[in-house]
Amino acid sequence: TVSGGGLNMITGGKYGDETTYGLQEAYQDRIDTIENTLANKYNMTAADIADVRAGTYKGDVDSELLERLNLLDEAKAAEKKRLDLFTQI
Q1: Considering the entire predicted model, what is its pTM?
Q2: Which of 22, 38, 41, 56 is most buried, with most CB under 10 Å away?
Q3: What are the distances in angstroms from CA 46 to CA 4, 10, 12, 65?
Q4: Cα–Cα distance list, 67 to 2, 37, 43, 48, 74 (Å)
Q5: How far apart are CA 17 and CA 25, in angstroms?
């Protein structure tokens, strides 16, 4: 997915946003939303969330959001790897 950049390119970078490739921002927005929900609704700390990512979480929160967070992290990393290959060409 390619987004934006037209005005930025025409004005030599003075106006508008740079062109973005892929879904990195969308992945991050969703990850941020899940982290906020885990913190606010389930009272999880940043350390708890880090443990979820590391696969060592031993707390009492049982939500599909824990697995979804890891899946989004994996998908974002995989897409980043593909984007890096694409931009090298």
Answers
A1: 0.75
A2: 38
A3: 33, 42, 40, 15
A4: 28, 14, 17, 14, 11
A5: 13
